[in-house]
Amino acid sequence: MTTTVHQFENIFPSYDAIPENAQLPFPILQHAYLVNGTMRKWDGPFTQVVSPIYVRKGQTAERVVVGEIPHISVDAAMEALESAVQAYNLGRGEWPTMSVRKRIDCLINFTEQMKTKREEVVRLLMWEIGKSRGDSEKEFDRTVQYIYDTIDALKELDRTSSRIQKEEGIYAQIRRGPLGVVLCMGPYNYPLNETFSTLIPALIMGNTILFKPAKYGVLLIHPLQECFRNAFPAGVVNMLYGEGKEIINPIMESGKVDVFAFIGTSRVANIIRRAHPKPNRLRACLGLEAKNPAIIMPDADLEIAASECITGSLSFNGQRCTALKMIFVHESIADAFLEKYLDKLSKLKYGMPWDDKVMLTPLPEENKPQYLKELIADAQANGARILNNLGGEQHLSFCYPAVLFPVNNKMRVWHEEQFGPVIPIATFSHIDEPIHYIQNSNYGQQASIFGTDHDAMANLIDPLVNQVCRLNINSQCQRGPDKYPFNGRKDSAEGTLSVTDALRVFSIRTTVAFKDSGINREIANDILDNRKSNFLSTDYIL
Ligand code: G3H
Predict the structure, then answer these.
(1) Full-model pTM
(2) 319 in contact with ligand 1, CB cutoff 6 A
(3) Does the structure show a pLDDT above 70 at 5?
């Protein structure tokens, strides 16, 4: 099939061509937000939520307005903060002192309600960030599974903490307790899953939450607000809508945030964190940029390498922090690899998120097409060619992938995280070349190596595992399964997330200890027998 620019011009549908299973009652006007257990009506200004999707009307196309959200003021944001502070009440609030069993019941209640919102959230994911229906459904289902896995992990943690130990004549019960108020901010590419991967563990460990939805993918949180309100005590989850630049700094400057959970760029993370008056008190859990490379060895199975590099570089148009953002291929097999990669790329379906098996869709960031254009022009000026038919062609928010070859260190795309459908490919003659790239990179999240020679693979594993945090053999880079650690070195991350690690990130070990004496044993036995404490307790959750 030959593609023409004319086909891109028709990529966007007319209103009549939008299938019933993608329709929503636009505009969705969100005029209230959750704070202190109630849906607070907002009568200030609103921010328009626009879609990456345009709709054709005759010869013109207009960007769809999905709806609007409150643009809350600094005062309103500070009220939300106070609500979280009061609900925590220096660790004496209902939520931080509640038994683990009861907290789990609240979370199960939330999840049962959340599941009823699946279709609405999936449709909003398609409209707000252009994610395909298949990937949107996966994002929702993966998030629900993440919650159930978190509950199981917490039960296990609680079971191991439910015994009283004795060392050197001192009894002790050691449990993990909450840290305080957690500010959760997620990214637009996984506005549900990545935000919940910090919010849920933070919540279930007894912290109270300030939840700032991502820049795009914000209205899809709206249906979940009532689930939060119904399931948790007042003030435990509070929403922050509005412009991050205006409201986040005053919140941080108050010194009342105890944990900063953020997935986004290191630039923004550093600005926010620096605003806290006592940085030593502030815990941070950060997922930041990455520039994960693939290294294709001379003996690689090229069918596997090309398939994994296609999904690795272009799933959700390359807008994943784990995406393959640089490909190194050995010079002896470069032609054969490129032929396979380009062939697979030419077969990828582009279109609207609801189209069956679609892979390439419009991009939500309004300035992204221009940024990608500049990256491509810079690479071309420094000697790269666009290898694929129509590579780099754009129509409004749709950007067809550009395969750039050969790339070198003079080009911006060698260093910058493109976070979009641009695939830089370089050749190497000696393995030290890609290894040096990884060593000199500011980032250290993951890498993929492709090869069949056992000794050569073993020789690569040892130097690379100390440069990145996950090395994928004959497989693309990815975060999942969510039970595995997700982290990074250098500027790529701070802290480790996985179902079990996250429970530790958002809690601290606290110990109740007593010397072995008659009076102490009497006190402890009375508390235990009569279940007088939620902390000093040997109750076992099944
Ligand atoms: O954007 C970063 C995500 O955590 C990537 O997750 O590798 O499962 O797509 P994924």
Answers:
(1) 0.96
(2) no
(3) no
